[in-house]
Design a protein that fits this description.
Two copies of one chain form a homodimer. Chain A has 325 residues and is α/β, with parallel strands linked by helices. Helices cover 39% and strands 21% of the residues of chain A. Chain A folds into two domains: 151 residues, 2-Layer Sandwich (Nucleotidyltransferase, domain 5); 155 residues, ATPase, nucleotide binding domain (Nucleotidyltransferase, domain 5, 2-Layer Sandwich). Chains A, B: It is an enzyme of class 2 (transferase).
Chain lengths: 325, 325
């Protein structure tokens, strides 16, 4: 049911993503700045085998490429040894990715620039290869296999060092040439804190794990993690409560804007900060609901796939690449 | 290339919308609160004949329905007299519309509630019938036939008494169950003017034609139209300039949020206020560009189809309804 262009673009469609059976087993990689998560994924989206390796970004982009190519080769050998015929390879990574062309435009974390990654992998493996943006791949996985299974319009919102967004609209990942979903840079305060993007008052400067830790340190002089701030909120510490409230309010401002424009049924919060669970989600639901009038009020839930979302998303992209147009 | 669901939903897809030839001639209506614009539309999206009638909303919802049904019957007769075989009927209207079911949930302007409009028209005409939301239909028409012909990701932004938005994302109209695109209710001032929606600081309270007229009247005591305010801006009147600047800045704040999330290539400004042309668009472009850092900066242009956008969009929906799944 995907249009040829969707397939050409390496985009899976959640409407049929879960039922694809034409590809049996795929090899998937989620290449992060520090570690590569890799796996052999079965037809029921089950992880038959997984491996984690250091990315080696400090040793330069060619070393990262070599590790990715070698890891794929190793996994193909392991699959063969296990009697699995691999149908395709999928890779998720951070940065600007031209999914249709299989090309990495720029990945600052990995040192890659203008890399024909899909072509390199296809040459090595003789298999169909799909590449995709890690957060969008994770959002696809949550929408097909995780917390968003029942929804067509949703936002996957990983909150960690930064804040990203993957938009699933009408059942499809929406990329806008790689520019979509920059929720972390919605301006939540007209003249707020300066942001690394060059703007001011960006959400990321209030509600990311790093911003929460920094705001708490500014206030108390104590350098503790966002997780520790959360623990202190639970214990009723007034400084932690004030920092937390500011982070929650900023998230609600940003989600109110998102709800007004995109009207999702569901917001799936992921990343490290999702670990604080209802301590974050319950006041966020209340603050968002208070800001909306006639708009559709989205449910807000925690992600289900944890740090496997990118890997499972890469597998979905691999699977989609084997579909005939 | 549309998926069956898109067809079932009566949604056209701009990727093939312009090239559809299976339906030759269609009858289209754009039902507004005051007037119904209707026409016989040919295979090249040419208006073969058009008619305008009063909506008759003051006489109650049944009268509006009767006028719509009779107008369609009249046009079918005129088409037959002219030797045109009509393949389908399309109707665009304001309100909450379930396009897939062909049902009007609520149209405050027309007095309709829970009306199976498509079924009523199909019964009368024995033809495929599509219904759609007027602004989204207009956005579809601008994207297929008007200013957005070359773009896949765009926002159609009619600015009149209110401010609406029709989103075309990845070449498809995005509806989110009818809730999408409420740009007029993005909050552009944290504690701004109260809005009829129950919120505060909504864009519509700063940048709609009615808000511009009201702000000018508040400032000067002179009740003049937004068009007159624009004329005074062009003449350098300082009160008019101040009011205009506030309206432009509020639009830029809202479009910056939209660009951060949806990253359109193009914003098409329509509605009455588009009549002021570059007086509006030039400072809007400058203010938006100053607010964006890494985001994709959309082009901002004036709509091309004027008050025929809804009618031509209804014709596109009609045409889509004749496509086999």
């Amino acid at each position: 049911m995907n249009s040829p262009r969707d397939i050409a673009a390496g985009q899976a469609d959640k409407r049929d993503g879960a039922s694809r059976g034409s590809a049996g087993v795929v090899v998937a990689l989620d290449v992060g700045g520090t570690r590569i998560k890799a796996g052999i994924i079965g037809p029921a989206h089950d992880v038959l085998l997984d491996r984690t390796r250091d990315t080696g970004a400090a040793e330069g982009p060619d070393e990262v490429t070599a590790r990715v190519l070698n890891l794929v080769t190793d996994l193909l050998a392991e699959a063969e040894a296990g009697g699995h015929a691999v149908d395709a390879v999928g890779v998720a990574l951070p940065g600007i990715v031209e999914e249709a062309a299989g090309r990495v435009v720029l990945s600052a974390n990995l040192g890659w620039r203008d890399l024909d990654l899909a072509a390199r992998l296809a040459e090595r493996t003789d298999l169909p290869v799909a590449i995709g943006h890690d957060v969008r791949a994770g959002g696809l996985a949550e929408s097909v296999l995780g917390a968003g299974r029942q929804c067509r319009d949703l936002l996957f919102l990983p909150i960690g060092t930064g804040i990203a967004g993957a938009m699933i609209l009408d059942g499809r990942p929406y990329a806008a040439g790689g520019y979509a979903g920059e929720i972390g840079h919605l301006r939540v305060h007209p003249d707020g804190r300066p942001c690394g993007c060059g703007g001011r008052g960006c959400l990321e400067r209030y509600s990311s794990a790093s911003a929460i830790a920094a705001a708490h340190a500014d206030r108390t002089g104590e350098p503790v993690s966002a997780a520790e701030v959360a623990a202190r909120v639970a214990a009723g510490d007034p400084d932690a409560v004030a920092v937390w409230r500011e982070a929650v309010e900023a998230l609600a401002v940003a989600l109110a804007a998102y709800a007004t424009v995109c009207a999702p049924e569901l917001v799936i919060v992921g990343g490290g900060l999702a670990g604080s669970g209802e301590l974050l989600l319950e006041p966020l639901r209340a603050s968002l609901a208070a800001r909306l009038t006639f708009q559709r009020v989205p449910r807000i839930v925690r992600a289900e796939l944890g740090d496997r979302a990118g890997l499972l998303g890469a597998a979905l992209l691999a699977r989609a690449s084997t579909e005939s147009p």
